[in-house]
Amino acid sequence: MAEDSPATDAECGAERGESRRTAARWRLMLAGAGRIAGIGLILAGTLGAAFGFGLYLTLRAAVSRPELVVPDVVDLEADEARALLERSGLRVAVSGSRHDPNVPAGKVLEQFPLAGTRTKRARPVRLVLSLGPARAVVPDLAGMSARGAQLALRAARLSVRHTMTVPSARVPIGRVISQDPPPGTEAYPGDRVALLVSAGPPERAFVMPDLEGRAWSAVRRALERAGFRRIRARRDGSTAAPGEQDTIADQWPRPGHRVRPGDRVSIVTRPPMVLEMEIPR
């Protein structure tokens, strides 16, 4: 047992030396970490101070920036409005546009902030520009009923100005013959369109000629060829003078009177005969 003591003492000495070296390494590591933490704190403080100072300067500049009164640019041309706002120390931002029936295209409809508002220099003023009145296209109404044409115009934001009717052998009664302005014309909402509507086939009408003194036989043949038919004939009891045989003495309707299909015509002849005829339909 006595022979093992020297080795044991050596080992114990080696362990104590290793422990001292380990403790020294930890002290060095802790000291380094402390220095790094200190540097980090110093850097953080410096950056924080710099940020705070920058924020302070920004806020101070904003607070100390002089206020301006926003000028009125509504109804100005866009270029004029931009020039006026920039001369006033403000910026321009166009935020949109829309149609307006009263403001021509290219002019300012709205602004924000409103005119007279106090604001900071270089702040933007948002503008809404006019596109002018909205346009409409006149639809093709030919062949439509008067009611259908009215509905089509209403759908196009237009209306009927007036409606005239004329006879037409081609277009059925109640249908549109033509229109003014014509189809495809550009118009503004609310504009009106005139319509020409068919009254149906033209009515046949005649002007009663002067038949008195003419030979009845010739007149009769002409009337029969035209389709007239005799309703009845009667004698009137009078006598014809020499040279007046087979002539027309009187008529009704009188010459120049307007007659239509279905009307009746009475003719008095010599020798005395009264004939009633009907105008063909």
> Average pLDDT, to the nearest integer?
80
Q: Judging from the principal axes of the Cα atoms, what is the shape?
A: rod-shaped
CATH topology of the largest domain: the name is Trypsin Inhibitor V, Chain A
Oligomeric composition of the shown chains: single chain
| CATH top level label of the largest domain | Alpha Beta
Amino- and carboxy-terminal Cα gap: 161 Å
The assigned structural class equals: alpha+beta
Radius of gyration from CA coordinates: 55 Å
Number of domains: 4
- List SSEs in N-to-C order: HEHEEEEEHEEEEEHEEEEE
CATH architecture classification name of the largest domain: 2-Layer Sandwich
Tally of contiguous helical segments: 4
Beta strand count: 16
Which sheet architecture does the biggest sheet show? 4 strands, antiparallel
Report the uncertain regions: 1-7
Helical content band: 25-40%
> What is the strand content?
25-35%
Strand order of the largest sheet: 12-16-15-13
List keywords for this structure.
Trypsin Inhibitor V, Chain A, three-stranded mixed β-sheet, four-stranded antiparallel β-sheet, 281 residues, disordered N terminus, alpha+beta, 16 strands, rod-shaped
Would you kindly provide a written description of the structure presented here, covering whatever features stand out?
The chain has 281 residues and is of the alpha+beta class. It has 4 domains: 25-64; 67-130, Trypsin Inhibitor V, Chain A (2-Layer Sandwich); 136-198, Trypsin Inhibitor V, Chain A, CATH 3.30.10; 206-278, 2-Layer Sandwich (Trypsin Inhibitor V, Chain A). The chain has 4 helices and 16 strands. The protein has helices at 5-64, 78-87, 146-155, 216-225, and strands at 67-69, 91-98, 108-112, 118-120, 124-130, 136-137, 159-166, 176-180, 186-187, 192-198, 206-207, 229-234, 247-252, 258-259, 264-270, 273-278. Strands 12-16-15-13 form a 4-stranded antiparallel β-sheet, covered by helices on one side. The chain has a 3-stranded mixed β-sheet with strand order 2-5-3, covered by helices on one side. Strand 15 (264-270) and strand 16 form a beta hairpin. The termini are far apart. Mean pLDDT is 80; it is low at 1-7.
